[in-house]
């Protein structure tokens, strides 16, 4: 009897009984998302801090900003010392993290720095014009 098949069957039954996304709610408890992120909100600014230990090549992290979404892609790779792992608590591996921001931000005013294992991203609120209404000019066309 295959224990992994039994586990998959058990999960399927739990999803069926409690509703489709039941198990997904526990996935972050079992496997927390990486990188861990803290966001501070100010009147017209956000400061996002992501924990990314051991980063030596800044080109291995991609930051995307789209309206009210921040997306981080990259990898956390800790150096392998060659020894046997006794305790393994630092989350690592390839990640793709998308975070919904509390307000739309400007794409042209994003500042990111990396220091002491922390990626710090400063974002500025997108403040649109009071009125987005614009007058449309009408051209007279000759009736041929």
Explain the overall architecture.
The chain has about 140 residues and is an alpha+beta fold. The chain has a domain at about 30-80 and about 90-125: Immunoglobulin-like (Sandwich). It contains 2 helices and 7 strands. It starts with a helix and ends in a 19-residue tail after the last strand. The mean pLDDT is about 80.
Quickly list its features.
Immunoglobulin-like; A-crystallin/Hsp20_dom; alpha+beta; 3-stranded antiparallel β-sheet; 16% helix; 4-stranded antiparallel β-sheet; HSP20-like_chaperone; 144 residues; 2 helices; extended; Hsp20/alpha crystallin family protein
Using the 3D structure, state the CATH architecture of the domain at 32-78 and 92-127: Sandwich
Profile the largest sheet: 4 strands, antiparallel
Distance between the termini: 84 Å
The helix/strand series, from N terminus to C terminus, equals HHEEEEEEE
Any idea of the CATH topology of the domain at 32-78 and 92-127? Immunoglobulin-like
Helix segment tally = 2
- Report the C-alpha radius of gyration, rounded: 23 Å
Low-confidence runs: none
Structural class by secondary-structure content: alpha+beta
Number of strands: 7
Portion in beta strands: 35-45%
Domain SHSP: 28-141
Protein name: Hsp20/alpha crystallin family protein
Organism: Lentibacillus cibarius
Pfam family, one: HSP20
